[in-house]
Amino acid sequence: MKKTQQKRRTVMQVMLGAFAGVLAGALVPLGAAQAAEKIKVGLMLPYTGTYAALGTAITNGFKQYVQEQGGKLGGYEVEYSVVDDESDPSKATENASKLVKRDSVDVLVGTVHSGVALAMAKVARDTKTLLVIPNAGADELTGPLCAPNVFRSSFSAWQPAYAMGKIVAERGHKNVVTVTWKYSFGEQSVAGFKEAFEKAGGKVAKELYLPFPNVEFQPFLTEIASLKPDAVFVFFAGGGAVKFVKDYDAAGLKRTIPLYGSGFLTDGTIDAMGGSGEGLLTTLHYADNLTNPKDQAFRKAYALAYKAQPDVYAVQGYDAAQMLKTGLDALKGAKFDKDAVAKAMETAKIDSPRGAFTLSKAHNPVQDIYLRKVEGRDNKLVGVAEKALADPARGCRM
Amino acid sequence: MDFVSFLIQVLNSLQYGLLLFLVASGLTLVFGIMGIINLAHGSFYMVGAYLAFALTSLTGNLMLSIALGIPLAFVFGALLEWALFSHLYKRDHLEQVLLTYGLILIFEELRSLMVGDDVHGVTIPELFSASIPLSDNLSYPVYRLVISVVCLALAGGLYFLIQKTRLGMMIRAGSHDRDMVKALGIDINLLYRTVFALGVALAALAGMLAAPISSVYPGMGSSVLIISFVIVVIGGVGSVWGALVAALVIGFADTFGKVLLPDLAGLMVYLVMAVVLLWRPEGIFKKG
User: Fold this and answer.
1) Is the CATH number of domain A38-155+290-363 3.40.50.2300?
2) N or C: which end of chain A has fewer CB atoms below 10 A?
3) How high is the ipTM of this complex?
4) Quick one: average pLDDT of B206-235?
């Protein structure tokens, strides 16, 4: 009995020794060209709650690009640490810190909810970790809170709304009422719209706000009917968007006062609107029938891999991976160096399914904003509302 | 605000208030009569809305779906009462909160697994899809008026049930003294099961009726839960009549708050609650 135990111990020791030998062997060529450096990517996205579908689409898009590159980005094998942020800002700092400190990720990727993204940006700045934001549109992220290590692959709230301001003025409307939720994204959208619309000679007659996420719109519809503006501009998303468009139609206002919106009004919501959305014009950095070959290849591959149609969120996830790859390429296989990666990402030209884009000084995409029209179940491309529109990055000192 | 707009806003207030009443009435029954703090009430509202969506996709007819959905919700409520809630009557409120909060999470997760996280719409039945013109450019959907009529009818029905029928008498007695009712030879367990199932059915009905105008989306239950509790508290716990009055008060406060004091709109409802509770700490219609 004792003997076997001893024997077992020696076996263990031999194995440990061998293991240590292998480890040492692996460590020796450090600095020389090596085959399989790893990069740890922390995905912090919503996988439960209202934004779960968005988090999944972003993850799918990101992983699709990595797959296309043979499971590697710029020669680095990608290892994921995944956290569900639940779109809960109060848990954001803790979740992001966990990824950075416990899992020691090299890059943070996240997230959808702007409040959570703001907390992530703070952690990224404090710990000097690279952060790529694949959706959250708060202007601040590439405005007052911009940082050398914080990038965005999506948009700023200002961008689609600003483009719409110009369109609405061009269509001959002089006098517009805006409606949105009273929270930062809604307010920033209205501010962007107003800036462009009033610059082009229009006038925002009244800005209506309701508390987030209240969806009792009837009092506002009554007010709009009595104000009789030329047009109405709104920002709503998800269930609120569906309800607003249906209510607007049911109140008979759609026939007399045209409705315009930031693209999220009709993204992923057209089916639920059941025909009420038909003909609506919105602006966004993506549309359903772009003609560039990159988009067609992307949509085909995505549909094949995930048995679902990709949306703007999948594109943003895909492009987050592309941006990261451009950065990693610059290292040429050397040890991960976030400053070098960030530097290379700044000058990247991303061949996105939405059309190629570059990054502004504040690290936000300089991109075409499309005018789309709801036809059937699609946001059909009408034209380019603003070519290579750059966020003004107000308050960014970098 | 001109006079026509004012009248339309009054209509908006009434209509919103009546819809709120429908959701809150089930809560006031369960909370007031059985003494259960049911945080999952909003989830039953959500279940109702998703039921309307699922059944309408199957049958193609909302009214048929509602006719099928009500008994389903009633049975579902009775089963839940038998399996879970019946063990709670003698326990602490904290344990009730724990169980019903757990149910919220379970229902949300089940919804996510079974239907997904997309937003869905339910079509308004052909019969009620018209609109009535109110001013030169504003019309009012007939369906909203139908909802109001249904809510009023239900309020009347509930009042009759609780005040004028034998079952109602037993329910009222049960809410005062559980043990005495038992001693009189009434099956209190069955009585409570019925009341609870009725509460669930009311919440689900509210969800089903609201589905075409509110659309069906994740988290819709929690948005009505808080406002329902506000109404129950303002109206006086357990009073159906109180819930109706409180729901209308909230309907007016919310509508006119949004129009007249847009910056305080989010606060309006709670200001009203604070004022009412200072004036009558037990709620407007608290009895004995």
Assistant:
1) yes
2) N
3) 0.83
4) 89
